[in-house]
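Subject: Predicted fold for Orotate phosphoribosyltransferase, 203 residues

User T.R. writes:
Posting the sequence so we have a shared reference for the thread.
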Amino acid sequence: MMENRIKEILTESGVLQSGHFVLTSGKHSEEYMQCAKVFQYPHFTKELSEMIAAKFKNSEVDMVIGPAVGGIILSYQVAESLGVMNVFAEREQGKMTLRRGFGIKEGQRILVVEDVVTTGGSVKEVINLVKSRGAIVVGVACLVDRSSNNKVFEEELYGLYHVNITTYESDSCPLCVKGLPITKPGSRNLVEKESYYERNRKF
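User M.O. replies:
I've generated the structure tokens; pasting them so everyone works from the same file.
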């Protein structure tokens, strides 16, 4: 029941999108997720955050931390649901750190929260930051888990929504073969893509 509700929220808020997309990697896909779109709706954000908080309500969490920028809003709302402090980490000269007077005390029990986890690079940096201050990472939570069930952290990873998006190389994309128009996420421009056959007729 909860899984259906999560998908309903992500669909209604425009997080889950279907079509023909060029991803950051250059690969193509018929699915795309823009997690930030759900944060436009405070009532949805609160509902999802309460689901995450419920998982860790007995973990004696002292603080929630999220990496900037994707984890800022979600980590704040999870902290509010748990009734604890919240901070966020951000990059300074390429390194994830605490700024703005934020601090972590030795022995604090900290939950790391991110919007989406794929390879987990930013989250790993935050985990290392927390541990370097002598604090304890009680777990990692995210709205969308795209890690394909890989063990990306030593700590437990709790994702509300799990997805494995199929991608294609640009020169062997079946969506291109069909001549479907391409959307570049983050761009206002809709790019008409030549079909695979049209491209190869030029040679």
